[in-house]
Amino acid sequence: MKNYVYGFLLLMIYLLTGFKSAEIKRTEIEYAGLNCVVVEGKNAENIMELFQQMQAEGEREGYCPLIILRDEQTSGGRSVLDEWLEMQAEDYGSLTEYTQLLLSEYKDIEAEDYFDTKSELYLEYIQWENGEGQSYITGNPDVEPQNELYISYVEDIYIAKVPTDKPYEVLAYIPMGGYNDCPPTQEHMAIAKKWYEEYGAVPCAVSYDIVQYYLDIPVTEDAALEKLKKEQFIYCYDIVLQGVGSIENLMRSLDGSRFWFFWWD
């Protein structure tokens, strides 16, 4: 009987301490000059659970987490993101110097002005949808809020500890954009600041051509959704043209969504 009790106590100690230790054990590496936690597996729910744990840690330790999506590999086992960041480092002397430049320049950009100067694009598309585009536009019954991180076509996933207490500044440390119709990084940051202040949306994941946002509290009010559908179309019109198919579908997809997904080619 005594041996049984002793064995039972050992089992309880293992369950209470051993499992807990396994949960917090993390493999860390350096990527783009940032301390990063290596994500094991590609389960979106588990990734976001770790992200939220690191958000809480970051509030105490002075960092914001950012999920880095290392995309498909090119030659030599390198990703497109690796090569993109190397190009920025070569162009600006170092990635650190470029980050410091971005942290200075984004503050001079008014996101509201950005959307105002590009509003003609939105109005022209609305006119097209309501006119000759009607025969091309169909309702999409499959459009629904996005409530999961998008991680397809990804080789490796890290969560970086970005040394800032401003979530919208994380984009300066893994800079992307400035090609084709993808805004330059400074504009990404100014827009991220606006959406953080208005909706609590934080940039949570980035690759060389993708930015994703996470919201603790989704947007559900009609007035806010009306404004958002315009801003998000201006910011990344391919989410409609190569995505949900219409402005109305975009608004439906935003209603109650915990994630916003943007992609440029």
What do you see in this structure?
The protein has 265 residues and is of the alpha+beta class. 32% of the residues are buried. A hairpin with a 3-residue loop joins strand 5 (202-206) and strand 6 (210-214). The longest helix has 23 residues, at 2-24. It has ten helices and seven strands. It has a seven-stranded mixed beta sheet. The protein has helices spanning 2-24, 44-61, 80-92, 95-105, 111-117, 119-130, 185-199, 222-235, 238-244, 247-254; strands spanning 28-31, 34-38, 64-71, 154-162, 202-206, 210-214, 259-263. It has one domain (24-263). Helix 8 packs across helix 10 (247-254). Helix content is 48%, strand content 15%. The protein is globular, with a radius of gyration of 21 Å.
